[in-house]
Structures are given as structure tokens and as C-alpha cells.
From TrEMBL:
Gene3D superfamilies noted in UniProt: RutC-like
Entry's family note: Belongs to the RutC family.
Pfam families: Ribonuc_L-PSP
Transmembrane stretches, start-end: none
Residues of the signal peptide: none
Protein name in UniProt: Enamine deaminase RidA (YjgF/YER057c/UK114 family)
Length: 135
């Protein structure tokens, strides 16, 4: 593996991700932000944050596979959520859990969550981008 995930002493232990990714690979993979479109470009889960988060993570998995990568190769995830408030965290986690069950893996890379006013189209509630490192 080109990525080692860790929680250094002195930083809080976050159960859903690691604080640091150490990359030793030589190829970087940058994914465009993935929204809740299926393969035909149809919006999935209109108005449903859980369904959209799930679809975004499934799309990230598909994009990674297209580059010969998996979530084990991800060094950084960033999620942009429209109208973010802390009470939406359980919905976000439910969507990630549903995607993880389908993918057979749990994304654990360092992650950043950013609340935004809007995304590219009004129906999109979330967008997820990733950076991976391959040997």
C-alpha cells in the first residue's frame, strides 16, 4: 500500500477517519468532485441527504476503480454539504455506512467537511472529492 493512515499521539481519536495519511507512492490520482448522479446522469435521491451521500461515495469508488485504485489508496477526502448544520451528521454517517456496506470497505482517509450555500445544480446536496496515491 502506498498510504499509511494514523492518529498521532496528541490528536483526538476520531472513529470514522484517521488524522494523517502518509503517502509513499509515486502516482497521484485527483478525482473531480462526485455528486449524486448515476451512470446515466440522473440525479439519485432528490431531497434525501443519506441517499445522495451514498451515491457520491459509490461514484468515488467507481472513479477510483477507473484509475486502478481503491479506498485503501485514498489520502484525503473532502465533502461539501449544502446548508450544513451539525444535526445533519447522522445523515452523513448513514450515507457513508450504506456506501461502505456496498463497497465492502470503510473510507478512513483524513477528511474535511465543508458547508456550502449551493453546488452546481439545486438538486445536489453533497459533493465528495478524493486524492489517492498509487505505487
Amino acid at each position: 500500500m502506498a498510504i499509511t493512515l494514523t492518529n498521532p499521539a496528541g490528536l483526538p481519536e476520531i472513529p470514522v477517519y484517521r488524522q494523517v495519511a502518509i503517502a509513499s507512492g509515486t502516482r497521484l490520482v485527483f478525482l473531480a468532485g462526485q455528486v449524486a448522479w448515476d451512470a446515466e446522469g440522473t440525479n439519485v435521491g432528490e431531497g434525501d441527504l443519506v441517499a445522495q451521500v451514498e451515491q457520491c461515495y459509490l461514484n468515488v469508488g467507481t472513479a477510483l476503480a477507473g484509475a486502478g485504485a481503491t479506498f485503501d489508496d485514498v489520502a484525503k477526502l473532502t465533502a461539501y454539504v449544502v446548508g450544513w448544520t451539525p444535526d445533519k451528521m447522522p445523515l452523513l454517517m448513514d450515507g457513508i455506512a450504506r456506501a461502505s456496506a456496498k463497497l465492502g470497505t470503510t473510507p478512513m482517509a483524513p477528511a474535511t467537511l465543508i458547508g456550502v450555500a449551493a453546488l452546481d445544480v439545486p438538486e445536489h446536496l453533497v459533493e465528495v472529492e478524493a486524492v489517492a496515491v498509487l505505487d
